[in-house]
Amino acid sequence: MEYRTLGSSGTSVSSLTLGTMTFGSETDRDGSFEQLDVFLEAGGTLVDTADVYSGGVSEEIVGAWLAARPAEVTERVVLATKGRFPTSGEPNGVGLSRRHLTRALDASLRRLGVEAVDLYQVHAWDPWTPLEETLSTLDAFVRAGKVHNVGLSNFTGWQLQKAVDVAAAEGLAPPVTLQPQYNLLVREIEWEIVPAAEENGLGLLPWSPLGGGWLSGKYTRDTAPTGATRLGENPERGVEAYARRNAQQRTWAVLDAVQSIAEQRGASMAQVALAWLLAQPAVSSVILGARTTEQLRDNLGSADLELEAAELAALDEASDPEPADYPYGGPGSQQRSRKLTGGR
After folding, report:
1. Most buried of the four, 109, 168, 276, 310, by CB within 10 Å?
2. How many Å separate Cα 127 from the centre of its chain?
3. Does residue 327 have a cis bond before it (omega within 30 degrees)?
4. Which regions of the chain does DSSP assign to beta strands (E)?
5. Catalytic positions
6. DSSP character at residue 81
7. For 237-244, what is the mean pLDDT?
């Protein structure tokens, strides 16, 4: 397992993260414990959860596992959680206000059975709460010793930049990470969000690295998914919806490229897709979200797969989202560059 810093912080983390969104819903307690054990045995350290995963049950399972394992095991865990989404039906039971975040963090700490978390992330932007209120609240958490580092999730480029600027201007704890959706089928964050993260030293923690299972090769062109898979249970699930992605030729060009490299390297398609993501700039750690221990073991194999330059180039070409000429395509990009020798 490779280790990297958590963005610009001094905390080191494994290049692969165990995501626990399935804990308590798709994965039962025993299966969750097994995944945690296997992940730590493989050298993994970063465990990511959130207060809304399975209505708080995910945090409870992680907390129970931490309590059941010896200190020499749990001491290696770098623990991350998130707050922002609704934890009640009340008007103040959601958002990034001081009131909600304070209660949300305290509840997370109780469920996890810890005095502090290593990374506390705001789960998404809140248009109703002044950013100064949110960032000063996070800073207070750090000063109180309840949080070691703060991070963002699902922020756009301008929102990320504003958060960094406000924190710097007010002398508040700066965000050190951004957790966005990022994979071979979702590369649009490279246009603005990735450059903003790189410019400000934020490490990326990509979620949905396999595109909801698409990049593992489990879906086919002619047969709609069925059975115990995320799309099998809900074919119209979010951005991963089968009908929409199936209709895009780019989807199958990407899958063909991933499959070709997987066959040549004797690896799984999931391992190839994860290895591509691990090679991308600014990535601190890639979040794995497996239903089963078997899936997790396969995903962990990506840590030993280093793609060659030609393989990365082939995947880049197949997955190019082909932006319009302006502002992110060729002509628009040329306007933002110049030669030191003069001219264009």
Report:
1. 276
2. 22
3. yes
4. 3-5, 12-14, 16-19, 46-48, 78-83, 117-122, 147-153, 175-179, 203-204, 286-288
5. 53
6. E
7. 73
